[in-house]
Amino acid sequence: MEIAVLALALAIDLSVGEFPNPVHPVVWMGKLALLLEKIGTGKRPLFQFVYGTVLTLFLAGLFASAAFFLLSWLNGISLIAYLITGAFVLKSAFSLKALHLAAVRIKILLAQDKLTQARFELRSLVSRDTKDMSTSLAVSATVESVAENICDSFVAPLFYFLIFGIPGAIGYRVINTLDAMIGYHGKYEYLGKFAAHLDDFLNLIPARLSALLLVLASLLSGRGARGAWCGVVENHARTESPNAGWSMSAVAGALGIQLEKPGHYRLGHPDVPLVPETIDASLTLMSIAAAAWVIICFAAGGLYFALTT
């Protein structure tokens, strides 16, 4: 049944993409988090840290528990209802089509020399200031987002689905969402510290797994694995995050490009210029890596089913 849930969830993502905001569980997470985080904002650092820790654990436990009890109840009533609801809930924890469409939209705008519009669209993918970006930096930011999100938006949620089922995928998505909302320096320095570190911990294995999948994708795409592997070895530790550099370095090495966030890091070597078509190449790597990960997930599910029946 879990294999069937995963298959249906993947089919929903590839055909429908993201759900409308009113019925999207991640949107509900974000709205509740915005409401509750106001209590801790502007308080003393210790209070912010303690409150942020409680907030993170509470929201992750709330949504994961809700998924567990809802699906347990449906499983005792109707397998069809369980399958459909389970697929809907699991799909909300990962996203491929929306990422692909967003990156393609930016690529088209850049190819048409509509840099101002591309900068605006980039705000949906990156948190950095985009208003003064050059075309090459816009391409770099898009490729970085594609590379990083193969882990955060796909590999990691399904990794925790394999281990803990649908509640595990939902729990991960809550923590990753909180990290994106409050897990950075400045206003949320202490409020989001626990969420940021917990997200780092949860991504330790998925980030490295994503890099390996991208090395494999580089090989399967005909580019050879050497460049991607050397990129990972040389550059994975150059980002502030202990995880973000792995998949970005793999893509940079595979494509022979340099990815740059000014003032923060440079990954890879500028052997090939950054042009709008570079985004297409990164999406090809992402698609192959995602397909390989799906095959692994189904193989793991099939093996578990064989061993337990």
So what's the overall shape? globular
- The SSE string, one letter per element, is HHHHHHHHHHHEEH
Portion in helices: over 70%
Poorly predicted residue ranges? none
User: What count of helical segments does DSSP give?
Assistant: 12
- End-to-end C-alpha gap: 13 Å
The domain count comes to 1
What is the mean predicted local confidence, pLDDT?
92
Q: Enumerate the strands of the largest sheet in spatial order, edge to edge or round the barrel.
A: 1-2
Gyration radius, to the nearest Å?
Answer: 20 Å
Query: Based on helices, strands and strand pairing, what is the structural class?
Result: mainly alpha
Structural key phrases:
single chain, 309 residues, mainly alpha, two-stranded antiparallel ribbon, 12 helices
Overview of this protein structure:
- With 309 residues, this protein is mostly helical.
- The chain is built from 12 helices and 2 strands; from the N terminus they run αααααααααααββα.
- A hairpin with a 3-residue loop joins strand 1 (258-261) and strand 2.
- The longest helix is centred in the middle third of the chain and has 48 residues, at 135-182.
- The protein is globular and about 60 Å long.
What is the structure about, briefly put?
With 309 residues, the chain is mostly helical. It is 72% helix and 3% strand. The longest helix has 48 residues, at 135-182.
